[in-house]
Amino acid sequence: MKVALDAMGGDYAPQNCVAGAVLALRDFSQLEKLFLVGDEARIRAELDKHRCADPRVEIVHTTQVVEMSESAVESVRRKKDSSISRAVDLVKRREADAVVSAGHTGAAVAATTIKLRTLEGVDRPGIAALLPTETNLTVLIDAGANTDARPEHMLQYAIMGAVFSRYVLGYANPAIGLMSIGGEDIKGSEFTKDIFRLLRASGLNFRGNIEGHDLFHNPVEVVLCDGFTGNVVLKSCEATAEAVMHWLKSELTRTPIRLAGALMAKGAFKAIKKRTNYEEYGGSPLLGVNGICIIAHGSSSALAIKNAIRVAMESIQTGINPHIVEELAAFYARE
Fold it and tell me: Model's pTM, two decimal places?
């Protein structure tokens, strides 16, 4: 398996990107080649810090970086030698099997959509993020790729999310819930009501509208929402998890008795932290593009980058794209 890493993407690039790459090379023997795409001098300096001379590393030098303040589509058109564009080019030429980026999400979505195109039957790609719940792993789609979705895009997201849940997470008949402001059929905006009608007639395992509290206490396998809502939900969940762990640490160290109890339950706290830590999940697949693209958190640590590379490798092994094409073709054939 061959992976292209946008080494200049993210808040702490190239330091964390290269450190994560080194961890991946150490832990994943099945990783045949890892392209590090970006400023060669800076990448080599980081590799030297880790004393990494792994022959599986190939540096692809680029002269440009997409800044977070730039327009996504314009950056792809104007900065043809950016690290994200060149990384996607490697997938387009089939020199790499997947691309991983913690940089500008919009630029990664635009570059993969423009250069790789979408799968047959897909109008817009969607980011599939994983949320840990009380009983399962939920696929949240879209988590930020398309903020101006139309109802027909959302229907495609539902199908792609269900395929991902079935073939990657192993749920036989994933239930789909539409994020809204109430569980009743009449609740929501005109936009969500239009989506509701499409889903109800789709033949999918559609549970109906779900609210924010249903994410964790009454979870479905696929949570459907537009990219704007999904990104807000995802970042709110991440921030809440971090805040709760901070509150726990503060309160449990306030007195000697509490600290003693905390030490006795140290294993449980570590397990909860690992379960809610975005770094353990690495990155989110961009479903619907004709290739494999993993979107990592902008502030990704070395561990998060390593796990994003792992997710890319798992996506390669699973071969999810042919299943998406097959499911969409079967759905539209029934209409």
Answer: 0.91
